[in-house]
């Protein structure tokens, strides 16, 4: 096996290229393959890949089939109880038709991200906000985004459609 970080980065780049070209279904496949390859050596890295592939399943033409296929492909892998795995499993559960368990896992994951101030890309923050709003728990993540966006100083998020950003204050 190549090094887990190299496998992870390559899969992420391939998936991003596929997704940007409008191939949402095939975008998740390199990620799912990498999950299987990486998890035995680096469970946390495998969990983040699974989260990324779960997010891509959300965009697939048939999200239910994508979620079920992803779950079947990673069944039996040991993610060592990593919180990100629980979040990814929550997204997949929600898509596959179990929103009760899915919502609890997504909320737990959102809380983990807020508590640990985990720095992931903006796209993951946007996804978490979207899922959190969908689940009716917008408050906790919004407070976190206010704090993170302002560098520790409370200031409003940019208004929807304002073309503002954290960098320019809205």
Highlighted features:
69% helix; Serine Threonine Protein Phosphatase 5, Tetratricopeptide repeat; globular; 170 residues; disordered C terminus
Strand content: under 5%
CATH topology of the domain at 4-121: Serine Threonine Protein Phosphatase 5, Tetratricopeptide repeat
Helix content: 55-70%
Order of helices and strands: HHHHHHHH
**Category by helix and strand content:** mainly alpha
CATH architecture term of the domain at 4-121: Alpha Horseshoe
Number of strands: 0
What do the pLDDT scores average to? 76
The major sheet is characterized as: none
Could you name the ranges where pLDDT drops below 50 across 5 or more consecutive residues?
137-170
Number of distinct helices: 8
Query: In angstroms, what is the radius of gyration?
Result: 16 Å
Distance between the termini: 46 Å
What is the CATH C level class of the domain at 4-121, in words? Mainly Alpha
Structural shape: globular
Region (Disordered): 148-170
Task: Please tell me about this protein's structure.
Helix content is about 70%, strand content about 0%. It has about 170 residues and is mainly α. It has a domain at about 5-120: Serine Threonine Protein Phosphatase 5, Tetratricopeptide repeat. Helix 1 packs parallel to helix 3 and helix 3 (about 45-60) runs parallel beside helix 5 (about 85-95). The longest helix has 18 residues, at about 100-115. The protein is globular, with a radius of gyration of 16 Å. The protein starts with a helix and ends in a 21-residue tail after the last helix. Residues about 135-170 have low confidence and may be disordered.
């Amino acid at each position: 096996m190549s090094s887990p970080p190299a496998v992870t980065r390559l899969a992420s780049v391939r998936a991003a290229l596929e997704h940007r070209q409008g191939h949402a279904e095939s975008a998740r496949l390199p990620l799912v393959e990498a999950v299987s390859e990486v998890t035995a050596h680096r469970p946390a890295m495998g969990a983040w890949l699974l989260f990324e592939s779960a997010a891509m399943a959300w965009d697939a033409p048939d999200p239910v089939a994508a979620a079920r296929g992803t779950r079947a492909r990673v069944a039996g892998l040991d993610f060592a109880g990593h919180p990100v795995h629980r979040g990814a499993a929550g997204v997949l559960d929600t898509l596959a038709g179990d929103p009760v368990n899915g919502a609890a896992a997504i909320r737990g994951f959102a809380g983990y991200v807020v508590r640990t101030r985990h720095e992931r890309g903006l796209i993951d923050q946007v996804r978490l906000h979207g899922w959190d709003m969908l689940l009716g728990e917008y408050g906790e993540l919004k407070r976190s985004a206010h704090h993170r966006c302002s560098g520790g100083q409370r200031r409003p998020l940019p208004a929807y459609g304002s073309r503002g950003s954290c960098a320019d204050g809205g």
